[in-house]
Structure formats: structure tokens, C-alpha cells
Specification:
CATH architecture of the largest domain: 2-Layer Sandwich
Strand order of the largest sheet: 1-6-5-4-7-3-2-8-9
Structural class: alpha+beta
CATH topology of the largest domain: Heat Shock Protein 90
Number of helices: 21
Number of domains: 4
């Protein structure tokens, strides 16, 4: 048996395009060839199960090996094998028509996965790194003859009789000079670990040393010796392929450690398992999220039939769940998948919706089952939930039930519960319920104390996303406003009909205003004299709610809000005309004495806001010592 011919692709331009075009993703050649070997192995197992193959399956391990001297990489399987006719059918005839149009369309393309996936060129990815490829194969069929196929990267091929004795296929790559980096044990091990770690058939790559017991010494202590064993690089039955009823918590935790060895244990997890209207399995973990949450994104791995595809899962997993960790496996997503495919495929949108629903159901279940335990986890999971509430309307509707608000007393409330708690006392003259919140409890302590003195409750909103969450829920809640506790004096935050009158005369108010403006001497601070409770601070410095909120949102990537982040800070200085200190300032002898007292009162207000620094702080301390 010997035959020479031309591969039926109708153009000689295809190989240069494969080589040039696929070079940016050239390591995937190993993923493609090992996946093919696994497919062939699974098919022979299936035929044996159906009784259509009655021979001995034997050892079905797929083996990857290399020879640095011969400059070859070999992928060997004991799967179906091929006859010469099947080689001609499956290898020589690349399954697409209109090759000329294909060449024209893709000659400048940049996405390797797109070309491979669309035209079934997985095997031909071998020519990204090989100057010649041989296939040594023997079909499982009775009476089949072994065959060797050879191609040097042109459209010319040769098929001749082979010498293989056992069922299966060896694919031998003769590595070209530009790709000799792949003739390295650790390079190949890294690629196999990345793409083939969970394939369903054992993958052998060389050997490794293991310590085994070797009797005992004269003192009765165990002795150990080092032996060489097969280096099986994969776990053939990862937990997402098993039934949740067969798994324990320690199984999920062990798998998490396998994926992320340096991470803390996750809070909890969701086991995905659906077979209609699409097929999807996987495990998603809720990690403990730090404020630097950008560092923890892109930790979900996408698989297709246990073959790793990518950790770029933005189109499959909702944006707000990109902080989750874990794996998703769906045979409905092709192995050779491009971003453009993900964006257009109908199944991807269904999977996205399914994952959103599963996460919402899991959170609702945890909340109802053990609220105290749920509250204990809230500081870690709140970021996910709030992000989801902002970005997905469907999630918002479900999330209302289990989204929690925490106050400064470390008490937790749902949105409805909190509205009921504060509605009676924190409703203003315009019938608006006011939620007060703090972003830094320590820094805003004096303002929180003023609010508490009025009987008002204050929420803690200090996560990276809270500025956006506040803006969002304000649009959802009826007749409700959220105001930062230091956005104004407490009487102005929740204005009632019975506000305090200013006891100063118009002339005195004017004099106090001018005196403080002169003492402050800074255009960023606008001074107003107001009638407040005598028990409130003599001077309060605030930034208007809308400006403060825009700046907070700008700091966390507010898009159009970034404009406000670059604006200079501007503050309102409220002088309490009813405070005894203001009366004392007015009655001080000499303008210099009045200015010193005004400056001291202003600096005290700055100090309470953390605004007094540098030379101003030094001068304040010195002045305080002199006044004592």
C-alpha cells in the first residue's frame, strides 16, 4: 500500500495562513492533538460498552512524549485508530468549501480560535510548530492494515503501509527551528497542566519520583526509597462531573485548593448541573473578597468536555459574578471558541441567565435557612449582591429579599425592614424617608453622634461599590433619599417643621459671617450662619450630598462621574448662631482676639473631618497650648 496525492483544500495558500495566522496561539496545538486522542479513546470505550467492539480495551492511557535529539513531539493513544480510507476522509479533505473566499476573508485575521473552530482545523494546528507531521495508525476494525500518513506542511501527502501492531494512533511532530522552545519538559508540562488537567482519560507525560515505604530500620522506624512512576498529569473525574449527593464539604474544599493553592477557604459554593435546554456542569465558589477586588477577577475557568478553553468568561458569566471562582463546563460551547462566537451564541445567553438564577436561589436559601450565619458572611458576600442589584434588574427583584443593610450598631436589616425601622422618626417635612449613612465610622464619629442624639439611625456604607449602590437603590425605593451623615448639619439632613430659629440679629449674623470668612481666607469654604440646636457644634464643615456622592462614585470608576473626581473640593461651613461660643467670639475684645477664636473654632471643625494637616495642624496645636 502506497499512495501520494494532494490534500483537498483547493488552494495551496491554506498552510502559510495556518502557520502565520495561528502563531500567536501556537501552544494550543497540544490541546488540540491531546483532545483528539482523548476523543478517539472515549469512542472505543463507547463501542465496547455497546458491544460493537469485543476486543480487550487494555491500558487506554494517552501518552505525550518528546525527543530533544530527534526534535519530535509524539501524542499516542489506544483509541479507534484509522484505516487508510479514513485518513483520506478525515485528514486529507478539510471540511469546508469556497477555499478561495476563505483565504481572502481570513488572511488578515487575528483570532486563532475562530479559524480553527469554524473550519475544523484542529489537527492542522500541528503545523504551527512542525515542519513535518506523521500519523502512524491502526484501526480497531477486524482485518485493518496499519497505515502511515506523512505531510511536510505543503499540500502534498503520502500514505503507505505501516508497522503498528496495536490499535490506536501516534501523531509525530517534527518540530521546526522557530518552535524548539516546545522541546522542553517544563514547557510541555505547563501546557498540559493548563489545558488537560481534567481530561476524562489518563494522560501520561514521562515519569516522576515518588517516595514509597522500604521496610524498617534497626530501630523500628520506617524506611523510604525513591521510585519512578508514571507522571499522570490529570484528574479524570473532577468534582463537577459527579453528583452533589456523592460529595462532601471536604471534597469541594480540596478541589478549591487544587485550583487556587494560595487562597483562603471559600465562604460557600454552588454546584451547577443542568441538561436542558442546554448542558452545563460546574462549581462556583464565593471567595472572601478584599477591597482590591480587581485582583480577584477572572478566576472562573471555562471547559468544554473537561478540556480547558479560557478564563475569559465575561459573556458567559454575568459581570457582577466575575468575582466568583470555580469552573464551568459545557459541551454546547465548542472547544475552539472565539469571543465573537460567545457574544452571538444563543446558548451563552441562556447559560448567563441560568447562572444568575442559581446564584440568587442559593443566596435566598442561605438567608432563609440561617439568617445569623448569613449575616456573619455579609461583609464578604455583600459586594456580589450589591453589584448584582445594580447591574441586573432580574437579580434586583430577587435580591431585595436577601440584601442587607448594616448600621453603626452592627445590626442588619433587609430594605423593607430598615424602611419600617426609621420611617416614623426619619421622615422629613416633605414626607421623604431619609436613610443616613457613614462611609468612615471613625472619621465621621461626631456627625454620627449628633444624629444618634436626635434618635436617628446611621447605616455603614464603606464597601468599594457602595457609592453606586446608594445611587441605584435611591431610584428604586419609593419616597426615600440617602444622605451621608456629614453632608450637612443634622437639622438640615432631615428637615422638620420645628427647626431652630437663629437667635442672632441680622447685623450680628453678618458680623459673624465676615469674621469667619476673614479667619478662614479660603475660597473653597463658603460660610453660612444658621439657627441650630445650642447642643450642636459651633462650627460644622460639610460637603453637599450630590458633590460628595459624585466624587465617591468617581473614585470607583464612575465613568461620566470621573469629571467630578477632578473638580476641586468645595465645602460649606455652618456657623451655629445659637452656640455659646459664637456669642463669646462676638463679645471678645479686639478684632485680633475674635479672629483667633474664629480660626480656632474652624480648625476644630476641620480636625473632626480629618481635614487639618501639615502646617495648619502644627499651628492649631501651638495656638491651643497658648490658649490653655
Amino acid at each position: 500500500m502506497q499512495e501520494k496525492g494532494t490534500i483537498s483544500i483547493h488552494t495551496e495558500n491554506i498552510f502559510p495562513i495556518i502557520k502565520k495566522f495561528l502563531y500567536s496561539d501556537h501552544e494550543i496545538f497540544l490541546r488540540e492533538l491531546v483532545s483528539n486522542a482523548v476523543d478517539a479513546t472515549q469512542k472505543i470505550k463507547r463501542l465496547a460498552t455497546l458491544g460493537q467492539y469485543t476486543g480487550e480495551l487494555g491500558d487506554i492511557t494517552v501518552e505525550v512524549s518528546f525527543d530533544e535529539k530527534k526534535k519530535t513531539i509524539t501524542i499516542s493513544d489506544k483509541g479507534l485508530g484509522m484505516t487508510a480510507e479514513e485518513i483520506k476522509k478525515y485528514i486529507n479533505q478539510i471540511a469546508f468549501s469556497g477555499a478561495t473566499e476563505f483565504v481572502e476573508k481570513f488572511k488578515d485575521a487575528k483570532d486563532a480560535n475562530e479559524i480553527i473552530g469554524k473550519f475544523g482545523l484542529g489537527f492542522y494546528s500541528a503545523f504551527m510548530v512542525a515542519k513535518k507531521v506523521e500519523i502512524h495508525t491502526l484501526s480497531y476494525q477486524d482485518g485493518a492494515e496499519p497505515a502511515i500518513w506523512t505531510c511536510d506542511g505543503s499540500t502534498e501527502f503520502e500514505i503507505k503501509k505501516g508497522k503498528r501492531k496495536d490499535r490506536g494512533t501516534d501523531v509525530i511532530l517534527y518540530i521546526n527551528e522557530d518552535s524548539e522552545e516546545f522541546l522542553d519538559k517544563w514547557k510541555l508540562q505547563g501546557i498540559l497542566d493548563k489545558y488537560c488537567k481534567f481530561l476524562p482519560v489518563p494522560i501520561k507525560f514521562g515519569t516522576k519520583s515518588e517516595s514509597v515505604e522500604d521496610g524498617v530500620d534497626k530501630d523500628g522506624n520506617k524506611k523510604w526509597k525513591s521510585v519512578e512512576v508514571d507522571n499522570i498529569i490529570n484528574t479524570t473525574s473532577p468534582i463537577w462531573t459527579k453528583s452533589p449527593s456523592d460529595l462532601k464539604d471536604e471534597d469541594y474544599l480540596a478541589f478549591y485548593k487544587e485550583l487556587y493553592p494560595m487562597s483562603e477557604d471559600p465562604l460557600f459554593w454552588i454546584h451547577l448541573n443542568v441538561d436542558y435546554p442546554f448542558n452545563l456542569t460546574g462549581v462556583l465558589y464565593f471567595p472572601k473578597v478584599k477591597n482590591e477586588f480587581e485582583l480577584q477577577r477572572n478566576k472562573i475557568k471555562l471547559f468544554s468536555r473537561q478540556v480547558f478553553i479560557t478564563d475569559e468568561v465575561k459573556d458567559i458569566v454575568p459581570e457582577f459574578l466575575m468575582l466568583l471562582h470555580g469552573v464551568i463546563d459545557s459541551p454546547d460551547i465548542p472547544l475552539n471558541v472565539s469571543r465573537s462566537f460567545l457574544q452571538a451564541d444563543g446558548n451563552v445567553k441562556k447559560i448567563n441567565n441560568y447562572i444568575t438564577k442559581k446564584v440568587a436561589d442559593k443566596l435566598s436559601e442561605l438567608f432563609k435557612k440561617d439568617r445569623k450565619a448569613y449575616e456573619a458572611k455579609w461583609n464578604d458576600i455583600g459586594l456580589f449582591v450589591k453589584y448584582g442589584m445594580i447591574s441586573e434588574d432580574k437579580f434586583y427583584e430577587k435580591g431585595k429579599e436577601f440584601t442587607l443593610l448594616k448600621n453603626t450598631n452592627d445590626e442588619y436589616f433587609t430594605l423593607d425592614e430598615y424602611t419600617e425601622k426609621v420611617k416614623a422618626i426619619q421622615t422629613n417635612k416633605d414626607d421623604q424617608t431619609i436613610f443616613l449613612y457613614a462611609t468612615d465610622v471613625d472619621k465621621q464619629d461626631s456627625f454620627i453622634a449628633s444624629a444618634n442624639a436626635k434618635g436617628y439611625d446611621v447605616l455603614v456604607m464603606d464597601s468599594p461599590i457602595d457609592s453606586h449602590f446608594i445611587q441605584h437603590i435611591e431610584t428604586k425605593l419609593d419616597k426615600t433619599q440617602l444622605k451621608r451623615v456629614d453632608a450637612d448639619v443634622v437639622e438640615k439632613l432631615i428637615q422638620k417643621e420645628d427647626s431652630y430659629a437663629n437667635l442672632l440679629t441680622e447685623e450680628q449674623s453678618k458680623q459673624v459671617k465676615e469674621l469667619f470668612e476673614k479667619a478662614i481666607d479660603n475660597k473653597s469654604y463658603s460660610v453660612e450662619v444658621e439657627g441650630l440646636s445650642p447642643e450642636e457644634m459651633p462650627v460644622t464643615i460639610t460637603m453637599e450630598e450630590w458633590m460628595r456622592r459624585m466624587k465617591d462614585m468617581a473614585q470607583t470608576g464612575g465613568g461620566p462621574m470621573s469629571f467630578y473626581g477632578n473638580m476641586p473640593d468645595s465645602y460649606k461651613v455652618a456657623i451655629n448662631g445659637n452656640h455659646p461660643l459664637v456669642d463669646k467670639i462676638l463679645k471678645a475684645e479686639g478684632e485680633e482676639a475674635r479672629l483667633i477664636l474664629a480660626k480656632q473654632a474652624f480648625d476644630l471643625a476641620k480636625l473632626s473631618q480629618g481635614l487639618l494637616t501639615g502646617k495648619d495642624l502644627t499651628a492649631f496645636v501651638k495656638r491651643s497650648v497658648e490658649m490653655i
